[in-house]
TrEMBL record:
Transmembrane segments: none annotated. The gene is Hsp83. It comes from Drosophila triauraria. Residues 1-24 are annotated as: Disordered. GO terms for molecular function: ATP binding; ATP hydrolysis activity; ATP-dependent protein folding chaperone; unfolded protein binding. This is Heat shock protein 83.
Length: 119
């Protein structure tokens, strides 16, 4: 069993899908760097996703930290240890959907003006 809310999800792909994913990574590299610089203290990295179909983006947790649901449960505990919360609740990873029109529009704006923080 593999958690789909954590990074590192490997979905089966054929050669055409792998080639498209590599092209998308290269195409959206500048947008990923810009979004990472804007969201620097909130996310660990911004990557192009192959798990998204309808959504423009999603947040996933690190592979070895708590899942988002476990973080929610631990925050709700009355006698929680705050030192453990900072240790186990790692930074998140933002995954963007290269096929979504919103993300494509953001890429075009980022390519037009590299210093545009409105992205």
């Amino acid at each position: 069993l593999v958690s789909v809310t954590k990074e590192g999800l490997e979905l089966p792909e054929d050669d055409a899908e792998k080639k498209k994913r590599e092209e998308d990574k290269a195409k959206f590299e500048s947008l990923c760097k810009l979004m990472k610089s804007i969201l620097d203290n909130k996310v660990e990295k911004v990557v192009v996703s192959n798990r998204l179909v309808d959504s423009p983006c999603c947040i996933v947790t690190s592979q070895f930290g708590w899942s988002a649901n476990m973080e929610r449960i631990m925050k709700a505990q009355a006698l929680r240890d705050t030192a453990t919360m900072g240790y186990m609740a790692g930074k998140k990873q933002l995954e963007i959907n290269p096929d979504h029109p919103i993300v494509e529009t953001l890429r075009q704006k980022a390519d037009a003006d590299k210093n545009d923080k409105a992205v």
